[in-house]
Structure formats: structure tokens, C-alpha cells
Amino acid sequence: MAEAEEQETGSLEESTDESEEEESEEEPKLKYERLSNGVTEILQKDAASCMTVHDKFLALGTHYGKVYLLDVQGNITQKFDVSPVKINQISLDESGEHMGVCSEDGKVQVFGLYSGEEFHETFDCPIKIIAVHPHFVRSSCKQFVTGGKKLLLFERSWMNRWKSAVLHEGEGNIRSVKWRGHLIAWANNMGVKIFDIISKQRITNVPRDDISLRPDMYPCSLCWKDNVTLIIGWGTSVKVCSVKERHASEMRDLPSRYVEIVSQFETEFYISGLAPLCDQLVVLSYVKEISEKTEREYCARPRLDIIQPLSETCEEISSDALTVRGFQENECRDYHLEYSEGESLFYIVSPRDVVVAKERDQDDHIDWLLEKKKYEEALMAAEISQKNIKRHKILDIGLAYINHLVERGDYDIAARKCQKILGKNAALWEYEVYKFKEIGQLKAISPYLPRGDPVLKPLIYEMILHEFLESDYEGFATLIREWPGDLYNNSVIVQAVRDHLKKDSQNKTLLKTLAELYTYDKNYGNALEIYLTLRHKDVFQLIHKHNLFSSIKDKIVLLMDFDSEKAVDMLLDNEDKISIKKVVEELEDRPELQHVYLHKLFKRDHHKGQRYHEKQISLYAEYDRPNLLPFLRDSTHCPLEKALEICQQRNFVEETVYLLSRMGNSRSALKMIMEELHDVDKAIEFAKEQDDGELWEDLILYSIDKPPFITGLLNNIGTHVDPILLIHRIKEGMEIPNLRDSLVKILQDYNLQILLREGCKKILVADSLSLLKKMHRTQMKGVLVDEENICESCLSPILPSDAAKPFSVVVFHCRHMFHKECLPMPSMNSAAQFCNICSAKNRGPGSAILEMKK
After folding, report:
1. What whole-number distance in Å separates Cα of residue 525 and Cα of residue 527?
2. How many domains does the chain contain in total?
3. Rounded to whole angstroms, what are the CA distances from 142 to 55, 93, 137, 165, 540?
């Protein structure tokens, strides 16, 4: 009955722990699996008592005195019947070629697995531990230690005899030993000792902390992290010890090495085993808990923790409760933790079970993320480690992610992820589209559908377009604009739009979309008609892009009404396709539009539309008077008489003045300025432009009885007409506004003219003198005359061949030379001689500068 209660309590606590583990969001660091195959068969009839691990195989000892060699999958490869009682410990050297075994009946065996080498000894007390030298395979290292009531070192002598030496005794049974390099560490009832096999010295003693615990029930756990770091676990205490070299000055009678405890901390549970994992520790803990129902203590599942040692405490990295067979009946001494350094494998050994813990790989990490429904993180992890993952495929994870998002109702995110996950797989795309159709979410996936590489079946795109056409005209129009026309059957969609227009014929969105569909279908005429009806800005682009000028010859007025600027620019840019004559004829009933076209044509080229210049006079007068005068000034083809007639009819004074002056009737023009405009400044400006004395006289005569005009003339006439002529004609007693200022200005202008003349005269005299001096210097220069020069008249050498004969040569400044007798005699009016070639004028540049005689 008590046993049943215990089992019930154990199962209850197990389920509680499992629920807690499920709720935990922290990913485990290790994964676990039972060592099965041959191990399962062994433990059904026997119980495990110890195990040791090599990189190549495992060695398992049992309570019935058997030793089994196993492969890493747990298959039995060899079996040794060592003793009829419990195997206490198995030890292997680093090569895995030699094995040491000790048992409860005092038997010790050390033998070669692949050689006939063997040692047998039976002691009179149980042998609890054995450790062979790590390099036992070497002839110089044939050593091993055993421990019962004392620690013995066995060493083979030169005659192949084994001799033993006592390393330690008197402190109770030796219960644990670990040999690493030249150091042996063991634990007895009092504490932990370390022995240096080279110096034959014991270098430390680390006492145990909790002496209240029975050492046979709570044995010490030892493991070497490296050749100089020993980790000790006993009870709930963990110590990390570092073996260091002692300085020569501190030697005296002390060992050459000493031990320093670099980290020490307490754990929550009793320690059954230790193993290193990089800079962390793996700790197997024996757990006892009190049942809430019965308030009795029971054995709970053992725990495997990864902890980070600190100087005086530790940080828990992960903690897993292990469900091993028969854990309710086990004690702390029944658990062992063995490890394989090469592969970071940890073996949890109990009498009825062997569990293997290993570091989780990327596949395990992805499994955990998928289990926690962290699909996006799982997908990212798979993409980063795609070369290392073996059990997962990126596509499968992605599809699971999409399904998860759909189930959660995140349709837009699911659709967006399809782009990345489905890639170029057309079949998967089509499958997902149908799945979105089934849940009524085609709109969600529509923005992300592939539009090329891959291209899906036309039916897929048509299905989505129909979905939008039924419920969302704007969305439908957007898809038509964005999707290439070759993705779907255009005629099917056109017919569907027409059917909808029968219900709503004035829907601008549908009409515009239909025009775009017509454009894709190259039915440009229908598209243009719709665009013009809608007055859509794309109409000009459509005409240009598809060269539809032949289709718009009868639609020019519509285009001009829509956007006259763009329409005129287009028509003028394409005169070769639609002639000026055709445009003017089409606009005959709309003179205001006709004017806009002809005005822009005139701006571009004054001569192209010359046949319409007469018509333009009336158009400018009617619709655009500000541009009439510039037109009259720039046009050389408009009839002046017609223009004058129109301007006079409309009383356009400025234009009439310009036309009169252009026709040579300046007096009438001036008279109109004076009489119609009463603008003396404009009259003066006009007189200045014409520069005609008679006009000035008329202007003076008209202004003489008008004081304001006289003031204007006095202010502006000074540089064109002598002011005295005006002043003499002013009647005495006439009051003239600002007369004094005007006279002062005249005098100032006169003084300015005098100053300017004097300044100009000075400049002229200075320049003349400078040029005269320059000419004089030039004329004073000598001229070379030699045998190569000829007479320009007779063309014979200028110098005679006989230098003794007398000769006479005339040289001009122009460098022409003549014999004196070849020159004509000077005239009676002027004694000067001139070069016959260069000048016939008096005192020209060819006047003689030198006469040579001999």
C-alpha cells in the first residue's frame, strides 16, 4: 500500500514538472534520448552499476559482475564475465586499448582489449575504484591505481613483474578516483587529495564541507576539466580547483605544485555527477522533495543542469528534469554522469536506464521554435544555417508559417510572406491562391502575385480581377494599371466591364479602366473616345504613343476644349500629320480657339501662317488686344490698310499711331498722339524715333499754347532741337509750370554738352599727337636696300651690277623701290612724288621717304 502511494505521488509530481516545462519559454540547451538496443536487453535482467566512455565505444558494468562493450547506439560488441558480484568501476586508457575493472568481491583485472596482456589480483576487501594510466599503452606508463581501504599504485617492473606502493591509507574507504596526465585525484571519507606521479608527492588536501552526509550514500564526484583544473562535487558543494606551479623562492620543503580554489558555490540539490562543457559545468543532481498531500519525502526525477561558475556563486543556464526508469527507488549513489569530450555527449547512468544528453543542433533549435509557434524565427534560423540543417527544409517551414498566419487571421502578412517563401514555384503559388479563395481572401494576396518569372495561369489572374470587379472598382482599376495585359485574357475582362457598365454607365472608374483595357487590346479608337469623354489627361499621351493623329482630325475642338495649351503644342509639333489648314478649318466655328492656335503658330514662326495674318488682325482685336501691337510690329505679311481700318473702327489709338507711322503718315500719327492721347512724353518719344525736323516743328506749334506740353518739351528737347527756337515762341506773360527748373535743366544739359565736347576734343588732340609721333618714329626708321630688291617699274635689280657707276634710287615708305629715271616727273602743282603702285592721292602713304644717289 505504501509502495502504491509512493508511485502515485511520483507520477503526480512528474506530470506537474512536465506542465511547468511546457509553460517555460526558455529553450533547453540539451536534448535527450535513451540508449537502447543492447542496453535495453541488459537492463531488463540486470542493473547498471558503472560505465565509462571512450570516443569509440562504451563500457558498461552491472550488478551481476558483467562488463559489456557497446557501440554508441548501445549495441553489444563484447561481453566479459568478470565476477559474480557488482562491478564497482571500469577504467580505460586514452587509446581505448586497455581496460581496468574492479568488483565488490575484491577482484582487480587490467587487460588489453586487443592483446594478451593481462593482470589479475584478488584482494581481501571490496575494491571500490580503479584508474589506469591515461597512456597505459606506452611501455613506460604501465601503471594503475586501485582503492579500497587504501590507495595502491601498481607499476610493472623491468622483469614484467608488478610491484605495488601505498599512496594513502587510514582515512576510510577510497570511493572516487580520476587520473589526468601526471596527476591523480581521489576522495576518501575525509576529503580530496591530489598526487603528482612525477615528483611522487601529494600536493593538496581539500576537506569535505558537509561531514554529516554519509560518504557511501552521497559519494564525491570528480572530473578533470583539463590537465590542471579539477572540479569537485560533494553533497551540495562544488569547488573548482586549479593546480599551479610554486615559485622557486617558496619551495623549501613544500611540493613544487599547489592547489588554488578559484570558484566555490552551493547547489540546491545533491550532486551525483559533474562534467565540463566549455567554460560551463554540467551537473547531475539527486532530488528529494516533500509531497504536498502526504507530507512525506520522496525521490523526484534527477535534474541535469548547465551552470556558469562564478568566484563565489553560480548562474543557472538551463535545468532539465529527467524521467529515468525507476527514479523513485534510486539513491544519490545510484546515479553516475559520464561524458565524451570529443563530441560533448553526456551519459546519465542509473541502475535501470542510460540516458544520453547531447548539445542541441540547429535542427533541434528549429524544432523547438516550431513547437512554440515561432515560425518567423524558425524560418530565419533555417535560412542562416541552411548548409548545416539535415531534417528541415526552408520551404516546409515557410509553408507551415503561411498556414499558421492564415489560421491566426493575419491574411495580409501571410500573403506578403508568400513572395519570399514561394519564390518562383508556380504550382505552389496557384495552390496558395486557391487556398486564399476558399477563405474569401483573394484581395489580400493580389498585390503580391508574381507578374513575370513565374507567370501563373491566366485563370488565376482573371479570378482575382473578377473578385475586385464585384466589390471594389478602385482596386480593380489599380490591378489593371499595375498588371501587364498579357497575364489574363483581355477580351474576357473587357466583356465583364461592359456588363457592369450596363448597370452604371456613367461610372468614371469603370470607363477609365475600360479605356486602358482597349489600349492593351490595341483598340485605340474606342480608348480615345472614352478618354475624350472623360477629359482624361492621358489622352495626349495615348495619341503620341500610338500615333493616333488620323483619328483626331475631327476631334480637334474636343481636344482644345479639354486642354488648349497641350492640344496646340501637339498639333504644332505634328504639322506633317495634321496640316495647319485642316486645324484652322476645324476651328472655324470657334474663333477664340482658332486665335489660340494661330497665335502660338505665329510665336513659333512669323512666316508659316502668313496666309492667316489678315484673319489674325480681327482675332487679336477681338480676343487678345494686348498682343495686337506686337503682332503688327513683327508681322511682315499683314495688310496695313486692313489693319488700319480695323484699328480705327475700334478706336485703337496706339495701334493706329503705329500703322500711320509705318505707312509714312508721321504727322497724322503725331497729331493723334497729341489730340487723342494727350501724352507729350509719348509725342516726344515718337518725334525722337522719327528724327524728322518737321515733326519737331509741328510738335512745337501744337504745344506753344499748352503750358504742360511746353514744360515737357523744355525737359526733353535739348538734345534734339535748339531750345532757343522754343523759348522765343513762348508768349510773354504765359504761366508755365516748373519753368525755372526746366530752364536750369536746359542750362545744365548745355553745360554738360560743352564739357563733353571739350573732353572729346582733348582726347582727339591727344590721340592725334600720339599717332603723329608714332608715324614720325616709323618714318625715321631705315630701309634695307640690297641686290635682291628690284625696281617696281622696270623690274631690274635696284642696284647696278657695277657699283662704280653713279646711280639714283627712290624708296617709298611702303617699301616699294624705283630707279629715279623710271619714275614719272612730278606735276607742276605738287613737287612731291608718290608710289605709282600704292597711291594716287596727295601725300598718301606711298610718298617718298628716301632718295639714294651716288
Report:
1. 5
2. 3
3. 22, 11, 7, 14, 101
Alpha-carbon gap, residue 767 to 770, rounded angstroms = 5
What domain range is 80 assigned to? 37-174
What is the CATH classification number for the domain harbouring 124? 2.130.10.10
**Residue 6 pLDDT:** 39
Nearest Cα neighbor of 108 from 118, 117, 116 is: 118
Collapsed DSSP state (helix, strand, coil) of residue 152: strand
User: What is the spatial distance between Cα 582 and Cα 553, in angstroms, rounded to a whole number?
Assistant: 8
Kindly tell me if the per-residue pLDDT of 734 is higher than 80.
Answer: no
pLDDT value at position 307? 93
| Alpha-carbon distances of 645 from 228, 310, 555, 655, rounded to whole Å | 123, 113, 36, 11
Q: Which helix (H) or strand (E) segment is 557 a member of?
A: helix 556-562
Residue 743, C-alpha cell as written in the block:
530752364
Strand (E) positions, 688-778?
Answer: none
Percent with pLDDT over 90 in the chain: 35
Q: Three cell numbers at 375?
A: 515560425
Location of C-alpha cell 547531475: 284
End residue of a domain, out of 133, 148, 174: 174
Answer for the pair 650, 623: CB distance below 8 angstroms, yes or no: no
Q: Which of 475, 574, 559, 481 is nearest to 519 (CA)?
A: 481
Task: State the residue for C-alpha cell 475642338.
Answer: 557
Distance CA 33, CA 347 (A): 10
- Does the pLDDT value for residue 575 go beyond 80? yes
* 159, pLDDT greater than 80: no
Burial class of residue 818 in the structure, from the number of CB atoms within 10 Å of its CB (0-12 exposed, 13-18 middle, 19+ buried)? buried
Does residue 600 fall inside a structural domain?
A: no
Cα–Cα dist 615/581, whole Å:
13
- Cα–Cα distance for residue pair 546/801, rounded to 1 Å: 91
Q: Say which range, 92-96, 303-307, 426-430, 496-500, has the weakest mean pLDDT.
A: 496-500
Cβ within 8 Å of residue 843, ≥6 positions away: 832
Select from 174, 204, 225 the last residue of a domain: 174
What is the CA angle 391-397-399, rounded to 5? 135
Distance between CA atoms of 511 and 498, rounded to whole angstroms? Answer: 9
Residues 6+ apart with CB under 8 A from 22: none
Question: Does some domain include residue 707?
Answer: no
Most confident of 7-11, 571-575, 729-733: 571-575
Residue 318 belongs to some domain of the structure: no
> What does 459-509 look like in DSSP terms, one character per residue?
HHHHHHHHHHHHH-HHHHHHHHHHS-GGGS-HHHHHHHHHHHHHH-TT-HH
- Min mean pLDDT across 454-458, 617-621, 779-783 is at 779-783
Within a domain: 400? yes
Chain segment 169-213, per-residue pLDDT in tens = 988 899 999 999 999 999 999 999 999 998 888 998 999 888 888
Cell numbers describing residue 285: 543532481
Find all residues with CB under 8 Å of 283, minimum gap 6, and list them: 233, 238, 267, 271, 273, 274, 304, 305, 306, 307
C-alpha–C-alpha distance, residues 477 and 515, integer Å: 11
- Cβ contact 262:307 at 8 Å: no
Q: What are the tens digits of pLDDT across the range 367-398?
A: 999 998 999 999 999 988 888 888 899 999 99
Task: Supply 330's cell numbers.
Answer: 534510486
| Cα–Cα dist 505/270, whole Å | 86
Q: Using an 8 Å Cβ cutoff, are 72 and 39 in contact?
A: no
